[in-house]
């Protein structure tokens, strides 16, 4: 049994394990593990994610709370032996993902108050989605997710047809045949992040209509979903908001899984799992740069505030 150092509560015997009286003993054990790892492996800088490969592999094997979409990435790396981990280059996102999955801050602890927006009691999630953060890295993360979805749908198209049906950055204007002014305050010109053209079967029956998608990655997926839906009110088209959390999830407490909705809308339900995991990975790859930008902008702000 894996016994993390400096974790006095961790059960050492089967009897001690059975003596844990809790409604969710697995959650209790995971919390103990997270606290012990936090104390032992607290990161110091954004580039300092050093963990012993053998302990990472053992810790993940003993932690039975692996859930999608992180599970695929974690199990892939944790399945390697310590020798393989030394010889195989792991993605730079592996350790931050592991920390977040174990409820440990993936980056160094933040100040109590954000110097950019003034919000207090912030967490690492705030650093990845602060509304006062300049758009460079956050836009790159957004575009990375968009193009990953575009490439996945295009590759699936090319397996059965010569011309891909998916295209990024498509304009919607008031000359569109489905344009109807239902909300005078809504825009009459929008640019959708992605469009998948409708499809018909061999006898001409519609398989699905045109589908327009706007992507979002941030702290408030439900608010983004409502706002973007209002912006497209004047077009009677199939429109989806692909709202992703900064943790890489394609659904949240207030939103449904957009990857499933999107794949059902384009009659490609078999792509949902792959799309979900791909979005998760691209989000965390983008998070690395967003975090770096946040640290840089915080330092600049602190310098401005010095007397």
Could you give the topology of this structure?
Layout: H1 14-18, H2 25-40, H3 53-62, H4 70-78, H5 82-87, H6 94-101, H7 124-127, H8 135-158, E1 166-172, E2 190-196, E3 199-200, E4 206-208, E5 211-218, H9 221-231, E6 238-245, H10 258-265, H11 272-305
Parallel strand pairs: 5-6
Antiparallel strand pairs: 1-2, 2-5, 3-4
Helix pairs in contact: 3-4, 4-6, 8-11, 10-11
Walk me through the structure.
This protein has 307 residues and is an alpha+beta fold. The protein folds into 2 domains: 14-109, no CATH class; 135-283, no CATH class. 44% of the residues lie in helices and 11% in strands. The strands form 2 sheets. The chain has a 4-stranded mixed beta sheet, sandwiched between helices. It has a two-stranded antiparallel ribbon with strand order 3-4. Helix 4 crosses helix 6 and helix 8 (135-158) runs antiparallel to helix 11 (272-305). The chain is globular.
Quick synopsis:
This protein is of the alpha+beta class.
Spatial strand order of the main sheet: 1-2-5-6
- Counting DSSP E segments of at least 2 residues, the number of strands comes to 6
Q: Helix/strand-derived class?
A: alpha+beta
Q: What is the domain total for the residues?
A: 2
Observed structural traits:
307 residues; 6 strands; two-stranded antiparallel ribbon; alpha+beta; four-stranded mixed sheet; 2 domains
